[in-house]
Predict the structure.
Amino acid sequence: MFKRDWDRRTCAKRGHTTYAPTEPELAARLHAATALGDAWRCLRCGDFALGAPHGSGPAQDAPLVPRGKALRDLFILRFLAVERVLRGLLIIVVAWAVWKFSNSQDAVHRVFDENLSVFRPVTDHFHWDLEHSPIVDTIRKTFDYKKSTLLIVAGALVAYALIEIVEAVGLWLGRRWAEYLTVVATAAFLPLEGYELSEHVSAVKIGTLVLNIAAVLWIMLSKRLFGLRGGVVAFEAERHSASLLEVEEAAGAIPHAARGAHARA
């Protein structure tokens, strides 16, 4: 079965990440001398890359390079970040429309009533009561809202959009505070989304609700939020353990290969 190699795909796009540990024995295993010059083992994909290392120091200070499952998780977080940005921008457009409407509410009301009569011959032909249709009733109710109420709605929409954009930036950068913010903000709106779905079912609403529930559960469990699966202590231990293993596993791959070649000889 075909398995996507996230490590090599990322290195192909961004380049390798190499590191020279100050421990001589470990550095010797990570380093290779070639006819074209020195090569160092990449901390992400494990391949050798020609040129000087990008950093050096004790092995325990090696950079936390996402790889394997961590790299896949980062891709999912960035997918959610893009979705949050698009949603935030859409909400800003809606807030702008509400603000514009609040400044010309009477004029829009007159235009709506004048143009509504244009559709009456068509709706009468199909025996559809245009005057009392749910869409027309909803639009007419908005004309009764006070300007101050509409401005509050526009301001609330802008605030919500900013929260979404802040979430997106934090998720894209892989910040833990953004994961908490995403879970809290998304979970807070789940009851409202469920209520809207009970009022009117649509594929978009169902998809949005399912995506948000899945995002909340996945982030909470995979990132060990709110003390789940050991909490932040286990999460940080896992990150640092993985970083050390990246150096040790990369270094150990050469001796194992050499022993295998010697045994075959």
Summary: The first strand starts at residue 20 and ends at 21. The mean pLDDT is 77.
